[in-house]
Amino acid sequence: MTAQVDYLAVLFANTSGASGDLLGSDEKELGQLVWQLVDLKNKTLGRVNELLIKQELCDLTEKQEEAEEDNGSLTDSVSTAANLESALNQFHLTLTNEVNSIGAGTSVCLCTDGQLHIRQVIHPQAAGKNLLVPECFFSFFDLRKEFRKHFPASDLKAVDVHFMAESLNLPVDELTVLDSSEVLPREAAVQNVKAMASIALALLPEPLSHTFLYPERVNEKFETGTCSKMEKVCDNSVIRARGLPWQSSDQDIARFFRGLNIAKGGAALCLNAQGRRNGEALVRFINEEHRDLALQRHKHHMGNRYIEVYKATGEDFLKIAGGTSNEVALFLSREDQVIVRMRGLPFTATQEQVLAFFGQGEGPTEVCDVSGGGDGILFVRYPDGRPTGDAFVLFSCEEHAQSALKKHKEILGKRYIELFKSTAAEVQQVLNRYSSAPLISVAPAPLVSMLPTVSLLPSPGGVRDCLRLRGLPYTATIEDILTFLGEFTRDIRPHGVHMVLNQQGRPSGDCFIQISSPERAFMASQRLHKQMMSGPRGVNCRYVEVFPCSAEEMGLVLMGGTLSHTPTHTHSRSRSGTGLSPPPCKSRRLSPPTYSFAGAPPVMSAEAAAALYPPIGQMMLAPRTMAPGHPYYPASTQVYMNYAAYYPSPPGSPNTLGYYPSPSHLPTPPHLTSPGGLVRMPGLTFNGVKDLISAVQGYQYASDDGLAMHAHGLMHTHDPARTLLTQSKEWVCI
Predict the structure, then answer these.
(1) Alpha-carbon distance 524 to 88, whole Å?
(2) 137-162 average pLDDT score
(3) Closest CA to 355 of 364, 344, 368
(4) pLDDT for 498-530, tens place per residue?
(5) pTM score
(6) Cα distance between residue 560 and residue 328, in whole Å
(7) Where are any strands of DSSP class E within 187-324?
(8) Which has the closest alpha carbon to 309: 257, 251, 247, 234?
């Protein structure tokens, strides 16, 4: 608005709850509207109007009602309305008629004492009841901000009607000052309106010569959009909302914060480790003032649930809503599109199948065309190009999107498809989760970063005498795997079956098998690749991918490391690609964020370790020395807990266990009192460091040349230091 308006409608909204700076913070219903028209050109005042909402009169005490009847009304016109919708429409109609009756101008704008009357009372209550707000409530002047243009030294939070009247030498004796937690009487609201009208008139003449330009705006609808990770987001403009219903969308969040201006694309729903909504959202507002008003809605209700509102940072928002993919930016660049998320798609699903899924139906209302055809479909993939089973689809309008959502759990191929209304921020978050590092770093440093500085990738000349099975049924057992291998079972090395478990100890669908020779491993991969495997009782039938790999690659994955995921040809390998896919588990690790360990001297020299351990042994951690004689698990001893993302299961073929002493020709390590203090235990079941310590408890003072009989085999028990090594689940020194 570049020209001064003709009229100001000075407005005061009064609820049956808190007033002042806490107005609207307790969700109490609107009970009274008082306004007075100010003619800015002629510098005259109109009549004072009062509108009461009947349904809220019951919140007033009997004493207040009696006092009001005795004193009479202080306004020129008093009317009543049955509900909020009638009150808002009646206010707009009365104001329009009054302006038209004067005939000196047509432009009118509301003027309030602060932001709360419009942003925290009228708009939130109308949104909670799904009411349409008249157009006049979407722009207004904040009398406090207009006053500060001429008195900039005053603090905006300290400015109120009483302060402004005193500064302008206006009489203030009639103003009623109450605590913010108290209910404001009807006559006090009328007094405030009259004082505000006088202040507005006092700002017009010289020397102030104030003009009312550029009113405050209330966004009529939430604008969706994208956010780049390179964008700078102010920490004082972001909040975190918690306790949202799981089916909430960004439009529901915008409706909850109606009256406050959310930045474009500023509502981002948070997802849990499984990619499902966790009831939290990060919301970015246009400035700090709107963020502070949003914090006052802490524990306000969305339906039957109360929502908690807390401060957040710009970094938090960018981790959730920021993106760098050009493909996603192009997909989300279309304006006024409604996004629907598909979950549970077959991995072989194509754009044509998705279009046919939404295009089928018995009637025209059941057919919902995808906006842009194939360009309106975005499949979510892993970094190596494998599909995740998720996709996002664009629809041109809300009606088509609602028709699409009616196909929830209908069948595509042989699977039922879950459909959810989605947001631009959720698209960014899902793509970030699957195509890059975890969004929020809560896990400790990876295991490989804590190891000695050695080359972690296997050498190009490694012998590929192992098999990697991918895509196993989650119910598959070792017996099922042996049945699947068929004639190649006789080529399995002792203790050569290693199933990979996820963070929760459940099968991840991957398995490593050690084969007697590279030739047999290659032959098995050629013959068994993409053959079908059935779980117990013939259920969960699915095809299994079989790849040859080396023992070093297998050991690195089982130790929690990762390999280069660049696809390569079968007969050519380089250090830039091993042909192995990333591990299937995408769950967040549950370990603490950091570990701090006191320095410990090495158990043996690097030369002795290189002679004793196989190449994968170079990756073991520095052992933690434990003093002899302490019971079970000394509290003062710090033992590294291996929180790698993937754990190998106990080997399953063959089913016998044996223990072998280390070679006698090795030099005696400096920390051992006599030779032969190391025992190699292939296939040791690993259930935690405490179990290992408990297993060797009681064998720390054996004779120099004696052997102690353990429940599972023989152990050398020379060294009282009882040092525990966590290398590859094979070695223990006692």
Answers:
(1) 77
(2) 89
(3) 368
(4) 888 776 777 888 899 999 999 999 999 999 999
(5) 0.56
(6) 31
(7) 216-217, 227-228, 238-242, 262-271, 277-285, 300-302, 305-311, 322-323
(8) 257
